[in-house]
């Protein structure tokens, strides 16, 4: 009975998500579409391909003895991540050998054959572990969410947690050159060479007054949500919680109105970061892992103070230069700052207006100058539980409501203190 109800809610959730994410207006070919070309990533095709795979594993777990406990789940996830890391190393080694060896002797051929066999073995092992590793993460995030009262009857979440471990797509961001502001975006297939990134950006920048960047994503709020498996487990749990919150909020005013303004987009992304870190850390602990730092003390500025200072300073100075119409000066300054960062050991590929336009949506990050991050942290401190905070911000339908709620909580605090 519990499974039947969960399955019904699952289909209802998918239906709602598809309806909310589908646009009925006529499709218009954009400069981002032209620049992406054959590298475009299709969410619809991805979901049609992966949703059935998730149900196959869910049915497998119905058999007695197939459903693991938290200890077993933790071991499964760690084994999956270890296998993924080994697989990436073997692939890198094979690429290095193939690049360095022009004329293959018998010893080199034998070595390459052994590497290929090892890659096949690790790939098969990874696929055997993937479904169980995903279920482990889903279970932990579900438990954490239910611990804070976010579930319905029988502990069912709407939408249920559903994650696909792997390579998220890249994203092409375009911004105006004379002002840091996103003018377009396009998802790009994850299998992309470094040279192809530059080709896509060059095509996008053929348009007048355009700055472009092909950036990386740690996750994507599709359904199932895509979560990169190239990070640490703690980071993966935070990303999974972040993406589930986007799916959770799309059914509520905060998510439905995400694209109404830049401030609402920043509010959504920053709230998903803030809450995702806290919820993800709890899920990480549920699996049986230890954490040294509580979420609220583990910020980008505290963990990377030098990088944070340089990027924030760069953003502020670039804003001032562009405000005064000094576009070329601003771009020259960003190129100089990029090399300073590289010399300092920070491997940022490209620093331009598009970089700041995209990364600036995360208000606690160094690429942002928005006060929304500190305002959200202040608002969070007014709530005794995470669940109350999540439900409260989920009702925010416009940015004025956010300020009204923050001021209301400030007054309540000072009255009661």
Low-confidence stretches: 1-6, 18-26
The end-to-end span amounts to 49 Å
Summed over residues and divided by their number, the pLDDT gives a mean of 86
Strands ordered across the widest β-sheet: 1-6-5
- Class per helix and strand makeup: mainly alpha
Give the SSE string.
Answer: HHHHHEEEHEEEHHHHHHHHHH
**Which descriptor suits the 3D outline?**
globular
Q: Can you summarize this structure?
A:
It contains 16 helices and six strands. The chain has helices at about 1-20, 30-35, 45-60, 70-100, 105-145, 195-205, 235-250, 255, 260-285, 300-305, 305-325, 325-345, 355-360, 370-380, 385-395, 400-415; strands at about 165, 170-175, 180-190, 210-215, 220, 225-230.
Keywords, separated by commas or semicolons:
3-stranded antiparallel β-sheet; 6 strands; mainly alpha; 7% strand; disordered N terminus; 417 residues
Characterise the protein shown here:
This protein has 16 helices and six strands. The chain is mainly alpha-helical and 417 residues long. A hairpin with a 4-residue loop joins strand 5 (219-220) and strand 6 (225-228).
């Amino acid at each position: 009975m519990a499974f039947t109800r969960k399955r019904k809610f699952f289909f209802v959730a998918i239906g709602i998500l598809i309806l909310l994410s589908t646009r009925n207006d006529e499709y218009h070919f954009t400069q981002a579409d032209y620049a992406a070309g054959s590298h475009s990533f299709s969410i619809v095709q991805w979901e049609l391909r992966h949703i059935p795979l998730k149900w196959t594993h869910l049915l497998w777990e119905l058999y007695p003895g197939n459903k693991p406990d938290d200890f077993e789940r933790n071991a499964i996830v760690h084994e999956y991540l270890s296998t993924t890391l080994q697989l990436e190393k073997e692939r890198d080694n094979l690429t290095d050998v193939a690049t360095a060896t022009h004329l293959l002797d018998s010893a080199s051929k034998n070595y390459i054959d052994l590497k290929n066999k090892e890659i096949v073995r690790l790939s098969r092992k990874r696929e055997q572990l993937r479904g169980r590793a995903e279920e482990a993460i889903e279970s932990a995030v579900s438990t954490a969410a239910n611990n804070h009262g976010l579930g319905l009857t029988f502990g069912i979440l709407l939408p249920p947690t559903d994650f696909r471990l792997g390579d998220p797509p890249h994203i092409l961001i375009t911004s105006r050159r004379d002002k840091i502001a996103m003018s377009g975006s396009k998802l790009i297939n994850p299998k992309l060479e470094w040279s192809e990134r530059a080709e896509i950006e060059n095509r996008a920048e053929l348009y007048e007054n355009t700055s472009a960047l092909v950036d990386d994503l740690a996750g994507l709020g599709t359904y199932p949500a895509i979560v990169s498996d190239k990070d640490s487990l703690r980071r993966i749990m935070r990303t999974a919680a972040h993406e589930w919150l986007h799916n959770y909020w799309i059914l509520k005013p905060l998510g439905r109105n995400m694209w109404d303004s830049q401030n609402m987009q920043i509010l959504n992304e920053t709230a998903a970061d803030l809450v995702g870190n806290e919820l993800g850390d709890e899920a990480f602990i549920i699996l049986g892992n230890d954490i040294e730092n509580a979420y609220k003390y583990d910020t980008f500025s505290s963990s990377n103070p030098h990088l944070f200072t340089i990027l924030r300073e760069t953003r502020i100075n670039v804003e001032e230069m562009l405000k005064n119409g000094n576009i070329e000066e601003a771009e020259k300054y960003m190129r100089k700052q990029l090399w300073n960062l590289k010399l300092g050991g920070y491997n940022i590929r490209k620093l331009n207006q598009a970089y700041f336009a995209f990364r600036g949506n995360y208000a606690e990050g160094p690429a942002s100058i928005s006060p929304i991050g500190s305002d959200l942290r202040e608002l969070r401190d007014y709530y005794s539980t995470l669940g109350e905070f999540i439900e409260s911000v989920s009702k925010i339908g416009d940015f004025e409501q956010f300020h009204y709620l923050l001021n209301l909580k400030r007054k309540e605090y000072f009255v009661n203190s």
